[in-house]
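Researcher: Next entry in the queue.
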Amino acid sequence: MDTLLTDNVLAAVVGAILGAAIAHALDSARERRANARTAQRLVLGDIVALHGEWKALLEELYASSLTADASINVQLKAQLFRISGRSNQAGVVLAHAYSSRQVRASYKKLRSRYHETQALFEQTPRPNGHLRTAAFAWLDEQAERVGQVASTAAGIRQKDPGGIAWVGWGSIANKKWAEKYEALSFDDRAPPWRPEVTVYVVGLNGRDEEGQTFRQVQLDKIRDLVCAEHQRAIHVTFRGRKSHLSTEIAVCCEPMLGRARERLRM
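Model: Structure for this entry, 266 residues:
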């Protein structure tokens, strides 16, 4: 009896130790994966920021031929040396964070393109505007490629999966509902200098043919109305039902409000 009891206790102890060891190993593995993903996402963020800085400096380099100030070119050269060093540093971090050869190779190509474009813009005479545009498109093409492969490896979703988003109960004509709809939409309002017509009208869905026609007709009425003083265009929002519309007009000043009302009554 004592032997059986001892065997049971021993089995329980061994089981507990093995269970704890397995749980610890699983937790450690999860923590390592989480840390690796964090490192991948951080370095990818740095690379995205560096791409913008590279383009800005290369744009300055291209424009530097228009000035005879040698000190500007010296300062620009120093900045290019610094960003080249930071790009190399990002490459070291990326090589440690990503095991994917494709990610490392794509970033190596991007760094090479930065230096090729720099050498092109340093030529005398400078390349024409068409070649400048082609060079920047060449850079953006590879930067996008780096973003795609690195994001996939890091588990970062680059695009919204789409599908139906729940806005809530209510009518399209309700202002609160419309505000929720806009908050969930990836489409922004037009800038202040561009005219815009927004339609939240029951029976006039802005995406169907009738709604698009209605919106276009109203937009044509205000398209050329721009304030000479403030250089602002007009934004109009229609709400309600087809039988009873309310109109909200966003303008920069009182004179433009009167002109907008006159046009919309046409």
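Model: The mean pLDDT is 83.
Researcher: Noted, moving on.
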